[in-house]
Specification:
Rossmann fold, 24 strands, Immunoglobulin-like, four-stranded antiparallel β-sheet
Amino acid sequence: MKRLLLFVALTLQLQSHACYADVELACLFREGAVLQQGKSVAIWGFADPGEQVTVNFKGQEKHAEAAQDGRWLTHLDPLAASTEPAKLCVSGKNTLIIKGVLVGDVWLCSGQSNMNLPLSDTEGANDEIGAADYPLIHYFEVRSSILKQPADVAEGEWQTCTPDVAGRFTAVGYYFAKAVQSELGTPIGIVKSTLGGSPIEGWMSADVLKSNPASLPAYDEWQRLDAGYEQRVAEYHVRLAEWESRAKAARQFDENFAETKPLLAWIDSDRNLPSGLYNGFIHPLKPFTLAGILWYQGEGNTPRPKEYRILFPQLIEQWRLDFQQPELPFLFVQLPGYAPKDDQTGESWPRFREAQAAALKLPNVRMAVTTDIGDSEDIHPRNKKDVGQRLAQIALRSVYGRGVEDSGPVVTGVEHRGRVVLVHFANATGLKFEGDRSKLFLIAGPNKKFVSADARIDGQNVIVSSEEVARPVAIRMNWENDPKGAIVNSTGLPAAPFRTDDW
């Protein structure tokens, strides 16, 4: 029934676009909006087919005509950053005046629960929220549903960062915006489009998924499971009612009722619907002009690193096409340290981190390493300040050209010298170990059996060896779910996990 209602709501939504009486703007064009500086800015909305629409902003006048589906689109010429609120005026049969519009940089924050985590649920939240008075940081949270078909509209409004509302901001996005705005002095807009527990397949379009050998099995399996969804939900409600009846009867006699409450299987969770999040949370936003994208997702895909290695770059490329910016900066968070209790191998997360890092082959893609700031017991580490600041450092250097350090040591090569392996690092001024280094490096011989290695720093290199391995053929660094040590440079930023084998 839930899915049926979502489908009906979407159908009504789409039908409404065919019979506009008034000009409307897309959801991101609301009071307090931030428009992107330095790029041609897409402005769009809906009107009666054939209706002539005029857009005025900061002395520019642009025109558009609504197509047969009611959608119209035009572009403003590149705008200079401005802290002075301005009016965006759109007119056709009616006139819309959007006040308080700033010009700066807009970043889309997307992914699952660690990007969704609000500032109020993180370390140091009370002090941070109390001081969060930043009039040039504006925040838009996309409100939508998981949908079977792409939607043109979503809901939300822009909010100015104040202590009254900052606690609801995505913590990662908040700390990112705070650091970047402080350095640039220009307005920053943060658009949050997230959902906890969501796999990457939910954030990709159906066309891309169906054309991809890595995702097609998951897509087909969902279609098969979806066929019996209504019956399974009905059976669940019968089981739940019976359970509640037994529990009520037990309580009447003060009996200890230990029977487990029935739950819906994960396959019946809409958040696993392929393309469902893309349809509801991303499609309505395109082609909004952005400075870049921040992505923190992967926990929902850790059992399937081989698929993710293919899907993640395809998501990046698809979103760049959607937002009409082929090299749009895309910054992502490599998963932090965590000790999943259901992983017997101890290697599921390092293999997944490796799959994430494979996307660095694409242009303008950068990665924030966070293996040193995770939480062994909590898949949602509360330290989001360092995460946001690390992303900000990457953006300031790679997007804005500021001379800030944004990376830990980077492996440039490995040299075998008899019983030892020499690991060469770049960006390694002040190279040092932090934390427990007993398992920081692993080493193996021809038998492919890894053992803990001794490691010592020699300038900007690390010498790795073990008395147990006479002829090393492979090494690994931080190759475990929950690393306890790190190798850092003078900035304190850690090196990313790596390995030289493909076993």
